[in-house]
Specification:
The chain has 318 residues and is an alpha/beta fold. The chain has eleven helices and ten strands. Helix content is 39%, strand content 14%. It binds zinc ion.
Length: 318
Amino acid sequence: MTFVRTVLGDIDPAELGVTNAHEHLICKAGEHLASTPEGLLDLELSDVDKSVEELSLFKQSGGQAMLEVSCPEYGRDAAKLAEISRRAGVHVVAATGHIMEGYWRGVLDVGAISDGELHHEMVRDITEGYPEAPGVRAGVIKVGTGREVVHPDEERMLRLASRVQRETGAPITTHTTAGNLPLEQVRIFLDAGASPAHVVIGHQDRRLVWEDHLKVVEAGFRIGYDCISKERYEPDLQRVQFIKRLCQEGYADRIVLGSDIARRSYFTSYGGGPGFTYLLWRFVPWLRQEGVVDDDIHRMLVGNPAQTFAFAPVTAVV
Ligand SMILES: [Zn+2]
């Protein structure tokens, strides 16, 4: 029996429903990631009530599930995620793993942690639960890479994540910096024996390079168009065109959607915008208007997340 592992327990993948595949509900960035105190505060989502409010708005817009991909170096708080999920009535899947060198630098020295310890940490979070949040287990492994090169510790994490996937069946979702190096991630995952159908190569809509997107999906990986509404990176109109084209080429079953709007200034509940309703109330109608058919929209929002984030059959012994 396959399942999706949420912060409130395992569910049938068919129960997951309309899913936002990449967000943050509680997070805190390292000080080096902002140049001003105001900028740093903008990157901190710490108010449980406001996250419940924002997630409730997502539910009101038709949302049923969310991947919350914060790692320890980005302020993950699994106990709060469980509370937010319960109060908002939305499935939340939480992460284990580490994002990338640029995020953990100065916060957590991943380079000083042995392979054995990193492996143990991920398996423990997935199978036993987070030590800091008894009874709550991770349902996805988060790893990632930098802007220009894959740091040796990032490659180590991608390889360890692949091993943990083979041992536990857990899905993987990635951070790419500005959408760069997707083919490097693909290469490492394939070499390390990951299962492409259970790996999302993330943030690809921050770098709309058609040939690379085609290579990602042709290799069997899921592609994350998960920066929707962040028009300072790429205009949503181009996201719409790329998704439409991928659907026309027969790859609708490879795409997952999200908006990754982890800032107070993006959260309606903090007085910002566009908030969690943008994806379903604004972007999806736009796809429809441009001719993306309902079957494909349903795949991207419901079918693909259910398949991707379902635990795969285990092929190795822990
Ligand atoms: Zn993110």
